[in-house]
Amino acid sequence: MRIFDNPNYNFIQWRWHAIALSVVVILAGFGMMVTRGLPLGIDFSGGTIVVLKFQQPVGEDALRRSLDAVPGEKVVQQFGDAGANEWLVRLPEITTEEGASLEQGARAVVDAVTKANLGQFEVISQEIVGPVIGADLQRKGIYATLASIVGITIYIGIRFRFAFAIGAIAATLHDILVTLAFLTFFGYDLSLNIVAAILTITGYSVNDTIVIFDRVRENLRSKRRESLETVVNTSVNQTLSRTLITAGTTFMAVLSLYLFGGEVLEGFAFTMLVGIVSGTYSTVFIAAAIAILLSGKQAQGRTQTARKAS
Amino acid sequence: MSKNLRWKLLVILGVVALAVFAFYPPGQKVRLGLDLKGGVHMVLRVQTDDALRLLTEGTADQLREQLRTAGLTGVTATATGTTTFTVTGVPPEQDAVFRSALSTVELSYDRSSSGPGSYTFEMKPNITVDNRESTVNQALQTIERRVNELGVAEPIVARHSAADQILVQLPGVTDVNRAKEIIRSTALLELRLVEQGPFPDENGARQAYGGNVPPDIQILPGRVEAVAPGQPAGAVYYALRRVPAVTGRDLRSASPQLDEYNRPAVGFSFNSEGAQKFGAFTSANIGRQLAVVLDGRVQTAPRIESRIDYEGRITGTFSSQEAADLALTLRSGALPASLTYLEERTVGPSLGAASIRAGVTAAAGGLLIVVLFLLFYYKLAGLNALTSIVVNLIILLGLMAYLGATMTLPGIAGFILTIGMGVDSNVLIFERIKEELATARGVKQAVAAGFDRVFLTILDTHVASLIAAAFLFQFGTGPIRGFATTLTIGLLSNVFTAVFVSRTMFELVLSRRQVAKLSI
After folding, report:
1. Does the distance separating the beta carbons of A147 and B471 come in below 8 Å?
2. I need a surface site. Which of A86, A257, B2, B442 has the fewest CB within 10 A?
3. What pLDDT is recorded for position B15?
4. What is the structure's pLDDT at A299?
5. Mean pLDDT across the stretch B146-153?
6. Residue B264 dihedral angles phi and psi, to the nearest 5°
7. Residue A192 contacts B where some CB pair is shorter than 8 Å
């Protein structure tokens, strides 16, 4: 059984439409990030998260009202399933760094809820990140991402050709930007887990790109008469079943994570879902297109030699 | 079966057996992270400035004493910062005596003249760095001892990224506040002679010296117990000799006890050196008051009735839990500097258990869908893919257990990504075999060509992912590292299973009989 029997779609022809679409999505994401700010989770911005589990249902308004006494801009969200009576309270960054005051916010939340008499509850999780650690994690997250991108570029540059490395990295950056845009659209906070997911996408996207470039390299040897454009298009088509099967199975596995993985994994899984779709798309449309654009001169050279030879 | 093939099968069976041996039974050998097990994760900063200030003050005090015994009266030596102190009032004619007294001080401090007869001393930069370093190490060791006394299984106490940070992870701890108090309390015990007091307020204590407290006297707060219930315990002040007779360093042990009124108290005993000092001190000061000072606060100030050698007791208004915790911190020694919390994450055991359930359900569900698809799409060859996925998971668990790596939620996500990569490798190979079959060569040749051609692709994709994983591990923290660990291990075992195991299985089937058509 095969999904495609000898597919022969002209992907390269659509490259300008594809690039335009990507630019629109990324710009829209940027626009939202600029106007609303990139939503940072407490891992990076610092702050306090307390998750409370009540023994009986509690109204969101009642909970909000009970927290009026706690200073700062609070976020109150349902945590987990609706029936679980679990609520997440987030407080903004603590300004002081002095010993006991780091946990002040968490204590104030517990005190306020106790005082409001909303019923029996327990604190099932509590996260407090001071500003020093927040800045540290932010720096390290950026370093990790940049370093792995540079490392991969160098590897592809050595194994293939420079233009391909640029194409792969452009596709990867494209995926990171598109994912950030979607995270902003859907209001997910950037947390350490989500950075891990973004880095996974980096790996996934590069993986996809390498598979196609590998085939291009192979075909360049056997099909010496054809232009780079044709070779790339043939290669994309030849690997199309693999691209779709892999993307499909990974997507399903991650969809299972998104649906059943619980509150803690939801953001991670969402990021991966967006990344898989974007990664597959960028491999087919963006990476190859940029590799061709940058190999422009070489490609012409090839065609000319091909003509001479005939 | 050819010899070559038999050898390959043996290698595979051997690897699987080793892996199973490494992680069986999984309940004991696979370590769960805090997010799955519940517990607390903390990052503390050691205020190394504290230790430097203490050291500088001590050096200034010592120098002053030394100069006084050398006959230079009227010389002051006072600390002016964490690493600086100034000396004033050195008479010009005795400058030579002064300089000869400096031999030890100048090993660690740079001296500069700041006017006639006055000098400024500043700690040398390399000595400052060394002192900070050893302060953090001492704090680390003290915290380690305390955590061990708490009886937590598999705790982590380690240096964290920045030079003055310490990471503490206590899996399975439920009473987080108690654990935090025990780790944070400085627990510096000092026994000092009371010069005057108690006074009702600090000013009263100063007035006793005419408002000018001599440098070898220090005024510290203490407390009196409430006379009647409901009445607040008031504060009192004592004027104490600055240099303690004995400190917590000379303790041999400490344990919770009951005092003569059956209230919880903490008893302690000295080692031989401490007993000698304390014996001499108490016999010389019979009838005077002795202050038991804990973290700069006078706990009790009993009168010395007779010579005491070995034992003492701290009384106060403790609960029995507090007394037990104080005994614990005293036993484990004082912290060289105070600690502040930079980060704290607590996961309740119920949330951890829910996360495990959700994570495992999701992973199993994802795996099931993928396997069903592979069997449907690739038929018998799908079984081959299934085998390599299972072998991959076994090797991954085995390596995790062998390396003592911790399984976290992002780690489970790494597992899933590994499965994805494994499936991808299989898909790449199968699709290529299909292509090769279409060009109408024999089945055996098609399989061999499929594996050979794809091997380079698999190598390239895996090396690129390994590069990314290595950087994640190097620069990442916490969850990112957990993810990078499983990903790295998974990628390595994946190359083995997707290429070696899968190919061996094809060869096994093809060696048995003449296969005209491949079920793929």
Report:
1. yes
2. B2
3. 93
4. 47
5. 80
6. -60, 140
7. yes
